[in-house]
Amino acid sequence: MSESRRANFASFYRATVIPLRRYLARMLGDPGDAEDLAHDAYVRIYKSTDVESVDQPKAYLFTTARRLALNQIKRRKFAPVDAGDGAKIIEFAEAGGPGVERVVMARQEWARLEAAIEELPAGCRTVLLLRKRDQLSHEEIGLQLGIAVSTVEKQHARALRLLRAALREEGMADRRDNASTGYCAAGR
Questions:
Q1: Phi-psi region for residue 187, left (φ > 0), alpha (ψ -120 to 50) or beta?
Q2: Architecture, CATH, for domain 3-89
Q3: Is the pLDDT of residue 66 over 70?
Q4: Per-domain residue ranges for the chain?
Q5: What pLDDT sits at residue 187?
Q6: What's the confidence (pLDDT) of residue 121?
Q7: Are the beta carbons of 123 and 162 closer than 8 angstroms?
Q8: Which of 72, 82, 116, 141 has the fewest C-beta atoms under 10 angstroms from its C-beta?
Q9: In sequence order, which residues have a C-beta less than 8 Å from that of residue 79 and are 6 or more positions away?
């Protein structure tokens, strides 16, 4: 770069550095980060003026700085963040699916439900499975089993009542077990 171009760049720097830092500080919420990104933007602009002539250098500078700031904001979501005192505060993006604890709890609840369904009387169990698993209406179940719709309704209601009671009983048993061992079940 020639001496006159360096002088022009130095003049450009002095004229734009304070507004650029303010702009970046508003975007990032941190004057220190703004200063670093402003420096990076000037380095990129300085390098690019060797290769190409820029029609609107101020617009080019602010666009470059804005893109650098947006990239840094995106990285903050996934990378450790400095708390200011040298300690790191780790921020990770929330996982898309349920955590391991929720998966284990769901599997345990599912196993309890399956066990409670197996304990139902045969007629209630059959009606419940046809209604919930196969999504049949009471009329369709009655036709398939050759029983009255009112009997299907009663069997379905009884199955649900027995399931609630069995799961409630098991939940109380879990609480008693946890109380005797000193553990507390979350969410109960």
A1: left
A2: Orthogonal Bundle (1.10)
A3: yes
A4: 3-89, 109-181
A5: 42
A6: 95
A7: no
A8: 82
A9: 91
- One-letter amino acid for residue 48 of the chain: S
Q: Which residues contact 129 (CB under 8 A, 6 or more apart)?
A: 117
Ramachandran class of 2: left when φ > 0, alpha when ψ lies in -120 to 50, beta otherwise: beta
Any idea which residue has 């439900």 for tokens?
113
Cα separation, 134 vs 182, whole angstroms: 42
CATH number, domain 109-181, options 1.10.10.10, 3.70.10.10, 3.40.30.10, 3.30.70.660: 1.10.10.10
Q: What is the DSSP letter of 81?
A: E
- Tell the burial category of 39 from Cβ atoms under 10 Å away from its Cβ (0-12, 13-18, 19+): middle
Task: Report pLDDT for 83.
Answer: 54
Q: Which residues of 124-157 are buried (b: 16+ CB within 10 A; e: fewer)?
A: bbbbbebbeeeebebeebbeeeeeeeeebeebbe
- Give the three-state DSSP class for 90: coil
Here the tokens at position 147 are 């029983």
Sheet strands (E) in the chain:
81-82, 88-89
CA distances to 127, 150, 154 from 145, rounded to whole Å, are: 9, 13, 14
Contact 64, 70 (CB under 8 A): no
